[in-house]
Design goal:
Length: about 525
């Protein structure tokens, strides 16, 4: 664990890429194969599930630290992170443990079904034998909250440097359904057989947000334009007459979208498509909030299949008849995709993403403004001769989203943030006026402002809190903010009857009194617009 803690500290103490890659490469050259595999898993979002209730951890930590529970909880609210709070309040360790990362994780996982007294004995023994950094990571792992400021792409760079294997090759081998308890390091990364995992997807190619005028991209004849569909990005895999569906978050979601199983009886062609999963019914694309009724459900009921049926809008093909096509220019991949989508049209579940015709860049401005009419978020611009790359690359794929919708709202609750924002009030609840002239809460937001603004607001919150509910402060309804959001939908879960998609603070409206904030009626009118 100490070796892993040293890696974490080295990564956490710098924002520069090269030192992070160097620290990762050194670790991968020195650590055991078991620890390397678990480190790869943790850095690629395959962290263990929580095995011990955080309520118990808080109580045990307060007991060992000799603190009353209320004081520990107050400390937790100030620090903003449970794992860090526990690591800070515990007394110095009584021994030194040399156990490695994989050993600790194995025992953590074995605690899931144990009695509470056995769990407590395990946790207290760990706390008494680990230094502060190792305790912090132990706490993160046992609560299922481990996150690190390193992208999977950066982790792959360090791994590539240590192994001498191409980054793209490693990125592909790390995709799909593998388990650090079932697969060995060599099997996964050094003894790879392309046929050993039929379901394995490819790493996704990601676009940058367009941060310039489109005419700066050069000759428009060199570019494709298509809608940026408002659904779930995924890969649809057909191999050996089996169908697999992967989300961009590397989650195998085949069972959640049984509509695609019709392909097993409709084609014997092997292929991998990249596209958007979106609800489609009676010849019409449906808004994202309809798709949300299926997201996160363990079992998809017949009701959902009837009310929210899905299709894939395909916009790229990565593999055809067993051949990896990613190195072909996009115009060649597009020709193959059009042909395959034509063959699969009768299934009803595969639709080709149509190209948006344009001769000049200014022609696309109007098309972009029509995006919401098509249940799209904007436009995608893709250079015709580009290969399908790994991760986010600047210059050849751009997303050009429509301007967000906005509403002016009053802040009524504030809560401290986490991590470096633990001492600042950064998480806010907002309200708008209903027909009776009362403020109704309708959304939360925590991003969009500068650190200077957060500090100024935090000072104001401390002076204007009228009531506290644990970590949440009710404040005087005086501050107005412009809230930007991507979509709006009816919601039975919220008192206001509406829910916003991707809300964030666009600006602090110091020029506007709370009486001039928007109304619930004006917001509901957007539902039909």
């Amino acid at each position: 664990m100490k070796q892993f803690a040293e890696l974490y500290r080295a990564i956490d103490q710098t924002t520069k890429t090269n030192p992070k890659v160097e620290a990762l490469a050194t670790y991968f050259m020195e650590a055991s194969d078991e620890d390397k595999l678990w480190t790869i898993a943790l850095f690629s979002h395959r962290r263990p599930r929580r095995t011990i209730n955080t309520t118990f951890l808080r109580a045990w930590a307060a007991e060992i630290a000799g603190l009353p529970q209320w004081l520990f909880d107050e400390s937790y609210h100030i620090v903003g992170d449970l794992a860090e709070t526990i690591a800070l309040v515990l007394p110095e360790p009584q021994a030194t443990s040399n156990r490695n990362l994989s050993s600790w994780i194995s025992e953590m996982k074995s605690m899931r079904d144990k009695e509470d007294d056995i769990k407590k004995e395990f946790v207290l023994k760990a706390w008494s034998s680990l230094d502060k950094d190792s305790r912090f990571l132990f706490n993160k792992l046992i609560t299922g909250g481990f996150r690190v400021g390193v992208s999977q792409k950066l982790m792959v760079k360090g791994l590539s440097k240590s192994l001498g294997v191409d980054e793209n090759t490693l990125a592909h081998r790390l995709m799909g359904d593998w388990d650090p308890e079932q697969d060995s390091f060599n099997q996964l990364l050094l003894e790879h057989n392309p046929g050993d995992n039929l379901s394995r997807p490819y790493p996704f190619y990601l676009a940058y947000a367009l941060d310039m005028e489109p005419d700066q991209l050069g000759d428009p004849a060199l570019w494709y334009a298509e809608r940026k569909w408002d659904g779930i990005r995924g890969q649809l895999i057909s191999r050996n007459n089996e169908i697999f569906v992967w989300s961009r978050g590397e989650e195998l979601v085949t069972d959640k979208f049984p509509e695609f199983k019709v392909l097993t009886s409709s084609t014997s062609t092997d292929f991998v498509m990249d596209g958007e999963i979106i609800c489609y019914k009676d010849g019409q694309l449906l808004p994202f909030n309809i798709l949300q009724t299926r997201i996160g459900r363990k079992n998809v009921a017949k009701k959902h299949l009837v009310e929210a049926p899905v299709i894939m809008i395909a916009y790229d093909i990565l593999e055809y008849k067993g051949e990896d096509l990613r190195q072909l220019p996009m115009y060649e991949r597009r020709e193959l995709l059009e042909s395959l989508c034509g063959d699969l049209q009768s299934t009803g579940v595969i639709h080709l993403s149509p190209l948006v015709a344009f001769g000049k860049w200014k022609d696309l401005i109007l098309e972009r403004e029509k995006s919401r009419e098509h249940h799209a978020e904007g436009l995608m611009l893709k250079k015709k001769d580009t290969i399908y790359q790994v991760g986010r690359k600047r210059g050849e794929w751009w997303k050009w989203k429509v301007d967000p919708m906005t509403v002016d709202a009053v802040m009524i609750y504030a809560q401290r943030g986490h991590g470096r924002r633990a001492n600042l009030y950064t998480d806010y609840t907002f309200a708008i006026w209903n027909e009776e002239g009362k403020l109704v809460p309708f959304t939360k937001a925590y991003s969009g402002l500068t650190d200077t603004e957060f500090r100024e607001i935090s000072t104001w919150v401390r002076k204007n809190t009228v009531e506290r509910f644990g970590p949440v402060s009710m404040v005087k309804p005086e501050l107005v903010f412009e809230i930007a959001f991507e979509g709006i939908a009816e919601s039975k879960r919220h008192k206001s009857g509406i829910a916003l998609r991707f809300p964030r603070m666009k600006r602090w409206r110091k020029d506007k009194p709370p009486q001039e904030a928007d109304t619930l009626l004006s917001l509901k009118q957007l539902l039909s617009s």
